Request: fold
Amino acid sequence: MRSTHDILLETRAALPTLTASRERKNAALAAIADRLLSEQDDILAANREDVEASRGRYGEVMLDRLTLTPERIAGMAQGVREVAVLPDPEGKVLRRVERPNGLVIEKTSVPLGVVAIIYESRPNVTSDAAVLALKSGNAVILRGGREAFRSNAAIVRAIHLGLEDAGLPSALVGFVEDTDHASAEELMKAVGLVDLLIPRGGAGLIRRCTESAKVPCIQTGTGICHIYVDASADLDKALNIIENAKTSRPSVCNAEEVLLVHKDIAPVFLPRLHARLTEERQARGMIPVELRLDPRAAAIIPGTPAGDKDFDTEFLDYILAVGIVDSTDDAIAHIGKHSTGHSDAILTRDDESAAKFTALVDSAAVYVNVSTRFTDGGEFGLGCEMGISTQKLHARGPMGLEELNTYKYIIRGDGQTR
Amino acid sequence: MRSTHDILLETRAALPTLTASRERKNAALAAIADRLLSEQDDILAANREDVEASRGRYGEVMLDRLTLTPERIAGMAQGVREVAVLPDPEGKVLRRVERPNGLVIEKTSVPLGVVAIIYESRPNVTSDAAVLALKSGNAVILRGGREAFRSNAAIVRAIHLGLEDAGLPSALVGFVEDTDHASAEELMKAVGLVDLLIPRGGAGLIRRCTESAKVPCIQTGTGICHIYVDASADLDKALNIIENAKTSRPSVCNAEEVLLVHKDIAPVFLPRLHARLTEERQARGMIPVELRLDPRAAAIIPGTPAGDKDFDTEFLDYILAVGIVDSTDDAIAHIGKHSTGHSDAILTRDDESAAKFTALVDSAAVYVNVSTRFTDGGEFGLGCEMGISTQKLHARGPMGLEELNTYKYIIRGDGQTR
Reply:
């Protein structure tokens, strides 16, 4: 097994070749897409070994996430081709100033350098992350999970063949061969070798990054998303939005976890909500939502009494915490205290409430009369995403190609002194 | 003395008032400028105490940085008025997308929240930092040095009066009353209370922030700036630029510390450089520059042999490390290894060398035929700066008002679900 340090050094050393060969990036992406298809048998064979080894150890949902099929590999290759045609951020002049002294100052978008990503289970992240990094001009270090190791290794072999087909060094995509905690820790401490670390995984991984990373790190993903139903909300639309935000895919970070309802409409709205999310779903053969109610909501509808932590939990399940608030200000204050800064929504027909909510709720995505489920690179028109940032520095919300660039100032003159 | 924690809580609690009163920001800045002038006697009296207490303990340069005069206070007030008229980043729509499903997505510039700054000696930083933060919509926590404590406190009193004159809470500008290490450490760990920490001070402070800060932190200031003289350089201009970059203000971060010379012109250029920076400066009554030479340079001109650390030292003095390189590629490789990523320059008449240098040197500011001394918010046309970032995430180079904002996505719809 090659050491993580050696892989970091090799990838770092390969970076200038990519910087000097910008015009070859799209050709490399096309070659990678071809190779994913031509190496499909190897990838599927490696994936079968992963799936066999995981059977019995993981549940069906996890096994499904892990499993590759010819269709899924075709989807990966198609995803690579779609990234290839996106606008290239590298080298874009963000601002140009000519100063009175004749200096020409160009604030220019440039790649971050080496982007490392720590991720879990789904092998398609391997090709997604690699091509997003390459398209934006970065080298990449991939450190996937143990359960998908053979699949990831086979996908990386195909990517390396594609890079070589395009005359680029395969070391531009570094693959960490050690799936222990130690290799993740090493990436977190690789000052000077890693320019950005993106942890994509559970809350534990993200907390470890926040606490011990010495390299720049983007907090991603944790979403305790709120929907607040104002007194003036359209209640029919509110029911649709809430059911969608909670149940269309409960395991994802932009799913709703907390519902706040204005006290004036609670007596009318909560019974309808209860019917919609429990009896009606059961009647439709769908999983009902467990409601965890604060005392005021529990006085109106049946449900589980909310415990201490229910308003601070990312359930990722068919569970919804429900509370009653006295005003939009109270809803904003609650969200300020309990939100993870991912996505929060107000449902209202009152412009003043909407304006206050969008101004004062300090989250990556703030919605008016829309489901929180739209926080996504594709839905935002970015074409793709590397993850969803819940921090404020550098990137917020879905991280597309632009967010994988920094900038530098290039200043040209003719002997100017100060 | 009030606890730093209480001050942090108060400033955090005041922030929504500022967010809700954007239109009053410029009035507050005008009132602060007025109050700096009307409270001038108090500020000068407090400053005299600081200067008296420091006499004998600090050198003349430091005492001069500490000392306020009516002219300097007028300059502070004028600086506040100049910030007031700069374009306001807050609320600017950076990108607007209408999606096919009818969603209107606005990527909107918003303040970071609470910006904390740790700084030393010069009391005018107190008003500069406070008004830059306020103008960009942020509350601010100021933690100045012990030697300027009374001056800073008096300036903050004037700022508080100005805020109150404009009907804004004085807690928007929090002033840390404890100048011990402990209060700096507390700011570094104030997760949830501080959105951005900017250390402005010596390398020790910045290292402590990088190593132990739990809040987002911008690395500022350390500048081991290089100038590379290519074989094709205009040697007369090169001499002007090098003397300017090294000697116009040796104590600042954008001053040159290392000179690299192409081997082909070294035999002609180095003797001229030696004459210009030593004998000629002495003849003009100016401080000569000590040259620390690598072995190949030492074979051509007299000087101090460079020691192990001389190519990795921010001298901030009339000292210049001089080395010979074989090519532009070698110069780029040397800079990649030794630069702090602040400002680096190539002097050349060859377009290919210039293009290679600007593409591959990974620094905040990359210059072609210009002195590195121009890396500055004012010189870049930003109007002002909070510090100069040498990191790649979020902000790079001079941090003006835009860099004190983050963004959020505001999404408006009419009941859309996914």
Summary: Chain B touches chain A through 63 residues (CB under 8 Å). The domain at 225-374 of chain B is CATH 3.40.309.10 (Aldehyde Dehydrogenase; Chain A, domain 2).
